[in-house]
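User: What would this chain look like folded?
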Amino acid sequence: MTSYKKYPKYKDSNVAWLGEIPEHWISVKFKQVLEEKKKKTNLSLNCGSISFGTVVYKDNEKIPAETKASYQEVLKGEFLINPLNLNFDLKSLRTALSTLDVVVSTGYIVLKHKSNINPYYLRWLLYQFDVAHMKTLGAGVRQTVNFTNIGNEYFFIPPLQEQQAIANYLDKATAKIDTLIQKQEKLIELLKEKRQALISHAVTKELNPDAKMKDSGIEWLGEIPEHWILCKLKYYGIYKSGDFISADKISKKGIYPVLGGNGLRGYSDTFNLKGHYVIIGRQGALCGNINYSQGKFWATEHAIVVHNKKNINVKWLGALLDTMNLNQYSVSAAQPGLAVENITNLKAILPPLSEQKEIAQYLDDKTSKIDNLITKATKAIDLLKEKRTALISATVTGKIDVREQIL
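Assistant: Here's the prediction, encoded as structure tokens.
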């Protein structure tokens, strides 16, 4: 923020989340600029909710008619606050200026602004209030706030014309940052697609472009090198799942990594033990994801552990399983789940061990370069998000003067 100028004079706000504020800003309570809207139903509107500081549509088909009948109306230009479970979720943004006409759960607080404040400035102020202070309010097991809690909190505001200037600046400045974030996210998406295509081609098509090919008879494989054979995955290794240790043993033997369905990597190089394994996520949203481990570890019932046979390179096997998209073979229940027998009976290719090693080394070299680019893009996104948050905070609390900033 060194390129921004400060206001001429400051005073102590006596409000912890604000600190010093420009001398001419005045003290008010939120209830002086906001009022709670009386509940109003409206069956003609779509259902909505807050998603990270934005009012979005929900899937009407998933909301029972009797539930929707109890929902309350929130219209474009009105404010929506999620006051529930503040202690369970410290990341989500809980305030939003609606750009939609929707109905929402009665668990939300719907507010209308008064004429003495610019709603677009108030949007940014509530954002800062949310991330810096609101999560310290509330009571009960679910740490819930109500409008009385919010309404009695003090803040400081500039004159209306200055509010408009701050709102305009933040709208434009954050839009530019958001565009840069979207570009980095798109880059990551493209890099991941390139990575997956690289793995798929190397694993299924061989590295020699002049190799003679034959039809595999398997749709997802297509043609494969003529000298490769087909066999079931059960011949590639030993698969274990569901017969692991209990929580009390984990706590006593916690020096080893604990691997589960979330793909947690657990290298035990400290012990210098032999043995490499492919870890397959067996349950949950990451069902079918592939990771590796070496050495001694504990595994939960949410993982399938594959110990490769002598004629199978473990890194090549992991790449093959990744290419096969095992998630598609999961059983749909309360949450996706893979059965070991559903995997082991699948057919796949089997090149000679020497070619497996060559493919694994090739993929290590190529994917490491892509992974480095993904890491750089991810760090860039983190820095942009930090810059965005810091800019909003500094602007709405008066730490910087943006009235004459040109974007």
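The chain has two domains: 26-157, 190-356. If you want, I can go into more detail on any region.
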